[in-house]
Design a protein that fits this description.
The protein is α+β, with helices and mostly antiparallel strands. 18% of the residues lie in helices and 31% in strands. It is built from ten helices and 32 strands. The strands form eight sheets. The chain has an eight-stranded parallel β-barrel, surrounded by four helices. The protein has a six-stranded antiparallel beta sheet with strand order 3-2-4-10-7-8, with no helix packed on it. Strand 15 (184-194) and strand 16 (199-208) form a beta hairpin. Helix 8 runs parallel beside helix 9 and helix 9 packs parallel to helix 10. The radius of gyration is 25 Å and the shape is globular.
């Protein structure tokens, strides 16, 4: 899916701003044929939850309505007009002038619809019905139930099957963009590199109906450096500048669509030339062993919730770079187009993850039960998420396939990979992702503590072993000596079991309350968090195939209410306001002393 751009043949209209807002009262249904009757307004893009001071609205599970008016200038009305939502969480029904024109389920990927046949002269009314409901068919997974009061009124309840707040709303930009009636609809870019000669071959495959398509490759200064052969769709670039972590270089594929010699449409797609591969226990970027340094994180900020906040995105990247970090995982859903484009420009490496979080019916630390070969907790019978899972894999790869920053796809986070049925569930999804990705990036899923070497039933599917472990926190609480022993033993077992697979940590951390200090290094203190990371670092450096450390979490984030959470999860090494905790200093020193390439090979 192409990102909306303005050029001489296209334009973009911004529908962000303040929209009417209403919580649905199911005793008095909204009549969508009439303007929305409400005195409440919400900013878009943003979660609605933290914009209100009414707890009944903030905590409501069910349906919500947004509405605004828009007009299309006469000069654009002969163009193809496309309404695009960056994301609506978690389900959206879209109406124009009271008529439903599209529906989309899935809260973290864009969707669009052609508007032309639905417009009237002058002012038009855009209405969006939104659901924040989750169940055992959706991704993420929620535990859904209903209660009925004495008057027969139904109240809906969602208990998130994951540890972050179920923010909802119109989370990313709403735009109307124009194209000519005959237009460029897609572009696929695949670079390869001959490292002996420094020559790159770039395959560019544009799609457009009713047009003759040509592609020119331009360098970062805008100078044309190659023309794509229209038959083979390839171009050769001598002395190619590579996209490198921390040193991004972006080329531009300039696609032109003509008819009878007249230019009808144009599109510029930025891309980086780089290769990604897994070989002999190493993760290779541009044929060099890469070491991941960075974070799991969330799209989560004050007031905006999960809504796009470009200032925070810029700050987060700057804080990462200042620390010597080079990567993060989009835990636990695809992040905004805008963040992905920023990472392309800034040279930040991204593991791109689907919203498949909560795929388990139980969560505890009974390690003895799950190692039994016939262990079955019923997850893969009770969960009906396969259709949603296939959809999000399609949508994520379709949107992000050309991003140089994306080096690996994560198919799920902390699923019940230890339960019978896991392999049968995941094998077709891995096959699908491999078929869909034109750049053939490595694949992984992120395994939690119960998916140990003895219990994980589908680890053969992954190219990289991505592990979430909390020895010293949820296990061995406060005992870092025991944590070190157990951590080392598990990593050595993985290394022996899969000697050719890279291993990395995608989560490890300890809740830490900023400003809490302890002469004894007690849990929740800043001293304990720092000592915790020192312990893990020591073990990481002992394991030959260990290729990366992405801690949990970049910053404190909001969760649902609970006695284990005080205004959210406090595992951040930054507060939610991005103020550093003590561990930042230690990690900055460590990461600045670890090169992006060749760390383990040079030891």
């Amino acid at each position: 899916m192409l990102y909306p751009v303005s050029n001489t043949d296209r334009t973009v209209l911004d529908l962000d701003g303040t929209w009417k807002f209403k919580v649905e009262d199911e005793q008095h249904p909204v009549d969508v044929t009439q303007p929305l009757v409400t005195s409440t307004f919400m900013a878009v893009p943003a979660s609605f939850n933290d914009q209100t001071v009414d707890p009944a609205i903030r905590q409501h599970d069910g349906f919500f309505w947004y509405e605004r008016d828009f007009s299309i200038m006469h000069a654009l009305q002969d163009q193809r007009l496309v309404l695009r939502f960056g994301s609506v969480t978690h389900e959206a029904w879209v109406f124009v002038n009271g008529v439903e024109i599209t529906h989309h389920k899935g809260g973290f990927t864009p969707f669009e619809v052609v508007l032309n046949d639905h417009l009237i002269p002058g002012k038009n009314r855009l209405t969006v019905k939104v659901s924040n409901l989750l169940d055992h068919t959706t991704l993420p997974v929620g535990n859904y139930h209903e209660t009925t009061d004495a008057d027969g009124r139904v109240t809906r309840h969602v208990d998130e099957n994951f540890d972050f707040f179920n923010y909802a709303g119109i989370h990313r930009p709403v735009k109307i963009y124009t194209t000519p009636r005959h237009f460029i609809s897609d572009i696929t870019i695949v670079p390869t590199v001959d490292f002996a000669t420094g020559t790159a071959t770039v395959t560019v495959t544009p799609v457009g109906e009713g047009l003759d398509l040509t592609t020119t490759i331009c360098d970062a200064t805008g100078q044309a450096v190659a023309t794509v052969d229209p038959t083979t769709h390839t171009a050769t670039i001598p002395n190619a500048h590579l996209w490198q972590p921390g040193n991004a270089y972006l080329y531009m594929a300039h696609v032109t669509g003509t008819s009878a010699g007249e230019v009808i449409d144009q599109y510029d797609e930025p891309f980086g030339i780089r290769t990604v591969a897994v070989k002999a226990g190493q993760f290779l970027i541009n044929n060099q062993p890469f070491y991941f340094k960075g974070f799991g994180k969330h799209e989560d900020t004050y007031v905006n919730g999960k809504g796009l906040n470009q200032a925070y995105n810029v700050l987060d990247i700057n804080l990462m770079k200042q620390m010597g970090a080079n990567s993060f995982r989009t835990s636990h859903y695809p992040y905004s187009d805008e963040m992905m484009r920023l990472c392309d420009r800034e040279g930040i490496v991204v593991i791109d993850e689907t919203p498949a979080v909560g795929l388990m019916t139980r969560f505890d630390f009974n390690m003895d039960a799950v190692v039994q070969p016939d262990f079955n907790d019923g997850t893969w019978t009770k969960m009906k998420t396969e259709s949603a899972h296939r959809q999000v894999i399609h949508e994520m790869i379709d949107r992000d396939k050309n991003h140089a920053c994306v080096v690996m796809w994560s198919i799920a986070n902390e699923a019940a990979n230890y339960s019978l049925g896991a392999h049968e569930y995941f094998a077709p999804l891995f096959k699908l992702a491999r078929q869909l990705d034109p750049q053939k990036r490595p694949l992984t899923y992120v395994g939690e503590i119960q998916a140990s070497p003895a219990a994980d039933k589908s680890s053969d599917l992954v190219d990289v072993l991505a592990l979430n472990r909390y020895y010293g926190w949820y296990l061995d609480t406060g005992d870092l000596q025991a944590a070190e022993t157990h951590l080392r033993a598990e990593l050595q077992t993985w290394q022996k079991l899969y000697p050719d697979k890279p291993i990395m940590f995608t989560e490890y951390g300890a809740d830490t309350i900023a400003g809490v200090h302890s002469a004894y290094g007690e849990p929740f203190s800043e001293e304990y968090q720092t000592d915790y990371y020192r312990t893990y670092s020591k073990v990481f450096d002992e394991i030959p195939n260990f290729v990366g450390e992405q801690l949990w979490n970049f910053a404190d984030f909001q969760t649902k209410f609970g006695i284990q959470r005080v205004q959210g999860n406090k595992k951040g090494i930054f507060t939610r306001a991005r103020e550093p905790k003590q561990a930042v200093q230690y990690l900055s020193e460590r990461w600045h002393n670890i090169p992006d390439f060749g760390y383990k090979t040079k030891k």
